[in-house]
Amino acid sequence: MTAAYNDNSAAQNAGGKKTADIVAKCARIICKMNPEKSTFTIAEHGCATGVNSLAQIQSFVNTTQGVAKQITVIMNDKAENQWDVLQDTIQQNFDVEINDGLLHFVMVPASMYTGGALFPAGTVDVTFTNYALNWLSKVPTVFEGMYIHDLASKCEDQLKWHLQQHEDLSNFLTNRSVEIAIGGFLILGIQARNHRTGFAGWQGLSTMGEVKQLMIADGCPLLDCVDPEYNRSIVETLACVDTSVWHIVSVEEEWIECPFHSKFERGDISLSKCARQSKELYKACTSWLIADASEKNGAVYAQGVVDLFYDRLEKVMAADPTGLKASTAHPYHYVVLQRAKLTE
After folding, report:
1. What pLDDT does residue 344 have?
2. 55 in helix, strand or coil?
3. What DSSP string runs through 118-156?
4. How far apart are CA 292 and CA 285, in angstroms?
5. In sequence order, what DSSP letters do the residues of 11-44 get, joined into one string?
6. Are 179 and 43 in contact (CB under 8 A)?
7. Nearest 10 degrees: CA dihedral of 228, 231, 234, 239?
8. Residue pLDDT, tens place only, 265-287
9. Which of 4, 8, 143, 281 is deepest in the core (most CB within 10 A)?
10. 148: which DSSP letter?
C-alpha cells in the first residue's frame, strides 16, 4: 500500500472494526486459561501502514490492563510496505505505552504465504488479519478486465485463481500453526464473496476494468494489468482449515456498506465528491499495479500513466448517476480459529 493508505482506507476500517471486539474476547479467554500469565504476544499479517491496526492493538491493551506487564506486537507485511509510515503511525498512537515498556513492536518484512513461519514456534497468543488474505501471492492468469470476479464463474481463469487462493491460504494456515501457541487464536478477517450468489462487491474494481480498456484503446500499455485480489466464499475458506490442527470457534458474515456511496444516497455529499473519495481509496490500494504494468511495458513516464488512469476512473465513476460505479460495498467474513493440541 502507498503512504496515502492511512488517509484513504475508510472501507477497510469499517470491515476491521469488529475484529477489535473479537481480539478482546480472545484475550479474555487467554487470560482465563493462563491466570499467571503476564507477558503476551500478538501479531498481525498485512498491517500495511498501520491505521487499521490501532483498534485491535488498543483492544488487547485494554483487555489485559492490570494483567499484562509486557505485550509484544509483531507486524508483518511485504518488504515493499511503507515501513516508515507504519513506524510513525504506531509511535504517534502508542507513545506512552512504548515508553513505559508495556508495548514492544517488532516489524517483519516477509511474505505471509511463502516466507514460512516468521516468528518463534508456539510464541503468539493472538494473530489477526484484515483485508490481507484477498491479495494472492501471484496473478495466476491475465485476462482482458481487471477483476477476476467479473468473469464467468466456471471459466478456466476462475478455476486457476481458485486453485491459487487455496494454495495460498493453506500455506498461510500452515505457517501460523507453527507460530501460534496451543490454545492461541487466529482471527481471519476476509474480504469475501457470497457463496450462494457469488457476489463479491467492490464495484469500483469492475469500473477500473472499464478504464483499463479505455486506456488500452488509447495506446496505454496496460494489457497485463490485473488486480491480484480474490474474494473467497466461506466454503473456500473453510476447505483450507485442517481440523486436526485448528478448532473452528466461530464463522460470521457481514455486509460492509460503502462509506462514500452511503453518504451520497443520504444526500450528505455530492456525486462528484463520492467519486473523488472512492477514487482516492482505490488509488491508495492499487496504484502500484498501474505503475508496475506501465514500467514493464516500456512506459517512459509511469507516474503519468497512473495519474491519467485515476483521473479517468474518477470521471467514469462521476458519470454514473446512481453512484454505484464508485461503490466499495462488499461481503466480509470473520473466521476465528483456535490452535488445537495435536493428538498423538
Report:
1. 42
2. helix
3. -S-TT-EEEEEEES-TTB-SS-----SSS-GGGS-TTSH
4. 13
5. HHHHHHHHHHHHHHHHHHHHHHH-TT--EEEEEE
6. yes
7. -20
8. 999 999 999 999 999 999 988 99
9. 281
10. G
Number of residues written out for the chain:
344
Query: Which residue reads 475484529 in cell numbers?
Result: 19
Which DSSP string corresponds to 155-221?
A: SHHHHHHHHHHHHHHHHHHHHHHHHEEEEEEEEEEEEB--TTT-----HHHHHHHHHHHHHHHTT-S
Which single residue is written with the C-alpha cell 489477526? 128
Q: Are 27 and 57 in contact (CB under 8 A)?
A: no
Q: CA angle, 76 as apex, 328 and 100 as ends, to 5°?
A: 110
All 3 cell numbers of residue 122?
508456539
- pLDDT tens per residue across span 85-123: 999 999 999 999 999 999 999 999 999 999 999 999 999
Cell of 47: 498491517
C-alpha cell at 178: 507453527
Helix, strand, or coil here: 222?
A: coil
CB-based contact 205:147 (threshold 8 Å): yes
- How much is the average pLDDT of 13-30? 90
Question: Strand, coil or helix: what is 269?
Answer: coil
C-alpha cell at 191: 474480504
What pLDDT is recorded for position 195?
A: 82
